[in-house]
Design a protein that fits this description.
The chain is mainly α. It contains 12 helices and no strands. α10 runs antiparallel to α11.
Length: about 270
Amino acid sequence: SLNGKLSKDMLKYSIPIVPSSTAWWVMQISGKYMITAFVGVAANGIYSVAYKIPTILSTLTSIFTQAWQISAIKSYGDGDNDNFISNVYKYFIIASVIICSGLIFFSKHLGYILYAKDFFIAWTYVPILLVAFHFSGLSGVVASVYSATKKTVQLFTSTSAGAFLNIVLNLILVPKYGAIAAAYTTLTAFFVTWLIRMIHVRKLIKMEINYCKCIISFVLLTLEAILVSNQVRYMYVWAFIIIAIQIVLFFPEVKFMAEKLLGKAKEITKKDK
């Protein structure tokens, strides 16, 4: 038999997710269509190839997010829920920043391996797109809080704002600056989506995160991407310095994560023996 109240609650929860997923797709794909329309098919081909490396970060993030969403929903309502979510989110930010920084540092070298000669220039878009996908991953983790609290309307509004901004900026910037503008607009759209979600989520749960550290880290990450993408003089020296600063900035957390990973590795080794 049909449970009217349950059906109503399920529809209220699920309906906003459909346009939200569509808006998310728009943020990822609109730049490519704009490049084709204003710059040409060849430029779009090169830009599309650039997505190979950011997809590595996106895949790792998706694996985590899918598992994390279940934990976030199960833990919601527990006395220690806010602290649990804050800790997981904090360590996710740090891991994402470090992985993203490393991929930016090696983006040109990965381009030699992954791209054909005619498409090698695509690596110059990679650093900016990596930062964009970093904020995409952060937005995905925050979305789990919306799922747990059943606030999916806010999920839709935040994603729609990012998609709308992406389209507007692409229309303005891509005809003037070409394909690289699409990378920057994608970064801007994902950042705005994440920012809107963070502002709202703080009203739902108490997030115990050092925002000052995070802001410094995000600025450094973006700076590293710009330096490498523009191939400034001594870019690898600057990038290495930035990575070192990131590690020092989060040293206690990085040390804790390293100890945990080493402990797990030792446990697995002992079991295998």
